[in-house]
What does this fold into?
Amino acid sequence: MSANYTQWPAALCIVGVLGLMAAAPASAQQFSPSETGAVDVAATVDFMNQYIFRGVRQNWTGMAMWPAVEVGVNVHSGEGALRAIRVGAGFLNSLHTGDTGRRGPTGKLWYESRMSGSVGLRFAGGAALGATYTAFTSPNEMFTTVKEIAVRAALEGRAAFGVPLDPYALVAFEVDAGPGDGQLDGGLHAGRYLEIGIAPRFVAGRVALSVPVTTGLSIGDYYELAMDDRTFGFVTVGGVASVPLRRGLGARWRLRGGVHYHALGAATKVFNGGDRSAVVASIGLAVSH
It folds into this structure.
């Protein structure tokens, strides 16, 4: 996403590319209870004041809109050690009204297009393992194409004191990158990234609440600053609420919104114009069938 930003005026600063998970529409690592051969489709649209990817801000003015769709197929389900195998494909877009979009150098709204393909395994006991290939491109040519392979391990439903925590770890590798090209930080070397997180979940009436906590780290040239790799990227603490709406057109609809606080490390602080922290607020709609 933003390998070329150091070549733009300082007012635009450095931006990066969006990756797996983290976020994504509905993550391909989460399994639906569908039987073998069943196809599930999820679509989302979210609106946010800022788009921050792994500690790197993608817009300084205006807002970002994320229309996304994901299709998954359960190719295996059983009662043994391997409970399910799922393959999926996702398509997420980031549309910007401000300086990296409509009011930017190109005057075009479509800042980012993210296409991904994934394979996920679900085991007895709630353990899950998945691999995803993602390509991040910029239709308005605000960053060079970034390609990434990510592996995610999770313990779905794992709880402490009766509260589901859903711990996970994600390792991502930038591929087919060169100096200043195809990298989040615009550095000399392709990066390797580690993300660790939990998401305690609660239910209050019809409202589902979660408190995701995420830490992003470089395990090799992911946050390069002055030719020096900085290990700590960010910590994010959020609050997300989701409310089911009345079923319609044979689908399930949910209204969701959240606020996330980002505390930044030495490199990401520089990438964000000297800001030590950022707050992102969002609201959106999700539908699944």
User: Anything to note?
Assistant: Residues 5-288 form a domain with the Porin fold (CATH 2.40.160.40). Residues 266-271 form the longest helix (6 residues).
